[in-house]
Amino acid sequence: MNTFILSMVTDTKIIYSGQAAYCKLRTLSGSIGFEAFHEPFLGILEDNSIVSYTDTTGRVFSQTLESGIISFKNNECTITFCS
């Protein structure tokens, strides 16, 4: 299984940092999913949306956020939550 590094952070803490197989969320442009080696991407998350991700064991987790930004580059996905 191919994986990528997923980091979900705020300005004061790390919510999650580890390997992921898949991540799905909604940006201002619509829904998008990420797998390993996705093309570079930068976007603004839709307010009050849910980020869902699958870890390397196949378990699915989700996190609700007020707002934020996402960056995917060099097989690393960083989601920064803003409030």
Q: What is the topological layout?
A:
Elements: E1 4-9, E2 14-20, E3 22-27, E4 30-34, E5 41-45, E6 49-54, E7 60-65, E8 67-73, E9 76-82
Parallel strand pairs: 1-9
Antiparallel strand pairs: 1-2, 3-4, 3-6, 5-8, 6-7, 8-9
What is the CATH superfamily?
Answer: F0F1 ATP synthase delta/epsilon subunit, N-terminal
Estimate the mean pLDDT confidence.
95
Kindly provide the name of the CATH class.
Answer: Mainly Beta
Radius of gyration: 12 Å
SS summary, helix count: 0
* Percent helix range: under 10%
Spell out the helices and strands N to C: EEEEEEEEE
The unreliable regions are: none
General description of the model:
With 83 residues, this protein is mainly beta. It has one domain (4-82): F0F1 ATP synthase delta/epsilon subunit, N-terminal (ATP Synthase, domain 1, Sandwich), CATH 2.60.15.10. Helix content is 0%, strand content 66%. It is built from no helices and nine strands. It has strands at residues 4-9, 14-20, 22-27, 30-34, 41-45, 49-54, 60-65, 67-73, 76-82. The strands form two sheets. A five-stranded mixed sheet has the order 2-1-9-8-5, with no helix packed on it. A four-stranded antiparallel sheet has the order 4-3-6-7, with no helix packed on it. A hairpin with a 2-residue loop joins strand 3 and strand 4. The chain is globular, with a radius of gyration of 12 Å.
Task: Describe the structure in brief.
The protein is an all-beta fold. It has strands at residues 4-9, 14-20, 22-27, 30-34, 41-45, 49-54, 60-65, 67-73, 76-82.
